Amino acid sequence: MSGSNRHTESSTLGLNRRDFIKGSAVAAAFPAARSEAAALDAQENRAGRRKPNIVLYISDQFRWDFVSAYGLNPMQLTPNLDAMARRGTLLRSHITNQPVCAPSRAALFTGQYQNKHGVWRNGFGLAPDAVTLATELRKAGYTANYIGKWHLAPREGEKGTHTDRGRVAPNERGGFLDFWEGSNELEWTSHPYEGEIYDGTGKAIPFSGVYRADFITQRAKQFLNTVHEPFLLVISQLEVHQQNDCNCFVAPKEYAGKYANPFVPGDLKALPGDWQKQLPDYCGAVKSIDDSVGEIRKTLAERGLEDDTIFLFLTDHGCHFRTRNAEYKRSPHESSIHVPLVIQGPGFDHSLDIPELTSQNSGAHKSDRCDAHAVVRCRAACAGIDAGPQLHTAARSRDGRLVQRGLRSDL
Question: For the packed helices 31-47 and 3-22, what is the interaxial angle rounded to 10 degrees?
């Protein structure tokens, strides 16, 4: 590598390290980190560097092996995600710590196990004072913005009463206090072609005649066309999750019937479940999510934001199509806990495969202190940023070269 190239990589990694340390719970948990973040701030000011934007795209119940980049599914349903993987970083062994919606999302946003963040089943909410990715990035100068499914507001009110399944009070939004268009339980406030989400004041935003994933994509594109930097944006789709009140997966009309003879993953073939009737529409929903990712990335490029934005794609849990229990997840089997994670953007565009095990709360130490948000820790690890002894890992480039990623002395 030439000297100029080394300088370019070092500058990018230095930026990410500063942002990671300042914009995560490391700064809250360890006083020494605050002084290091201040020193890195000073370095950044001298160098005139920019803070990267962050787009976290969450699909729901998306099997990892349906991303073609993992090399197991020949259907080529995910050309946009595959392109991200070729250019960026593909994590091959990412798991969710509890494969059901709310607990997984709580781990994702706090970096804690469920015995600490308190959301050990659906229906519980994050504590109003929870330390999350949003709260810490706002301290670092970011806006924290959310569009789509939330599922982290308490479902049960006082004396067992049920709360609104859609509207989410500001103190129940986990620190996403800037732009908000969401629904706590989107599966119960909408159907694939009609329903509503709610803005920051609780006003309904209805949709009809447009596929739900496309509607969420439209709202995200509208936001990106007016946003100021730096920003954190979470785009949280309900697809490819089944529609609860019909127990069916629903593909968009343009893909209905297109995948009538789908590839069947090996873990499903020998077991009953309901994959036989559900897989065709599931494949169509997967394709719709990949289309959405392509639309969001196109909007970022059109606004000149693509090279300054870290884009992460993942899901809350997988789907075993009732082959392991009477549900689609909520089991310790690989098809339930193994989830995709693809990252592209500053510090990640190295065409890398990461084989080591990572998880939604991989930042949790033995002390159970939340020292970092798992996805941001993953971002740090992949970019060669040291944020604790558990972050040292190895990565393999697409041409097979083994690249050791760890603490760099030149940061």
Answer: 140
